[in-house]
From TrEMBL:
It comes from the Bacteria. This is VTT domain-containing protein. PANTHER family: ALKALINE PHOSPHATASE LIKE PROTEIN (PTHR42709), DEDA FAMILY PROTEIN (PTHR42709:SF11). Residues 22-142 form the VTT domain. The keyword Membrane applies. The chain crosses the membrane at residues 36-56, 92-111. The keyword Transmembrane helix applies. Belongs to the DedA family. The lineage of its organism: Bacteria, Bacillati, Actinomycetota, Actinomycetes, Propionibacteriales. Keywords: Membrane, Transmembrane, Transmembrane helix. It comes from Nocardioides furvisabuli.
Length: 152
């Protein structure tokens, strides 16, 4: 039951960044230490399910009238073109940026997920870097939680 709760909370957190999945995961692990790796898996999978929706939204963002209107502005178009120039033909740079964002949250992963979709980053690169980055992030949360519990 705890697995499904963490999975659902993680999907919600991916869609609505005000929900703190790290705090939820820390509490869940403290309540069920034997289920640690299952909970990490649930948090990672849930986050990626939610981030796929952000990625897909980025791929289709130009269909939204307000985005289309915003991209007509020279400054916004120039910014998107700069990101496109940085990413195009540089898969390692793109993968590195996505991995850093997924593992640290800097820049915010929801933003980079949308940008990845807008820039048409291959889905498999988005998924691999996201799964590895989010998994590493949640392993760090669990390690910190278990260390803290050990001190108490």
């Amino acid at each position: 039951m705890l697995f499904w709760s963490v999975l659902g909370a993680s999907i919600g957190s991916a869609l609505l960044p005000l929900i703190n999945i790290e705090a939820i995961l820390a509490v869940a692990v403290s309540q069920a230490p034997a289920a640690t790796w299952g909970l990490v898996l649930a948090a990672t999978a849930g986050q990626m399910i939610g981030k796929i929706l952000w990625y897909w939204g980025g791929m289709n963002a130009d269909r939204a009238p307000w985005v289309h209107k915003h991209l007509q502005k020279p400054k916004a178009r120039a910014s998107l073109d700069r990101w496109h120039a940085r990413a195009e033909g540089r898969p390692w740079f793109t993968a590195g940026l996505l991995f850093v964002s997924a593992s640290t949250g800097i820049p915010p992963y929801a933003v980079t997920a949308v940008l990845a979709g807008m820039l048409r980053v291959p889905f498999w690169i988005f998924m691999v870097t996201g799964l590895l980055g989010r998994g590493l992030r949640f392993c760090a949360v669990v390690a910190g939680t278990t260390s803290l519990i050990g001190l108490l």
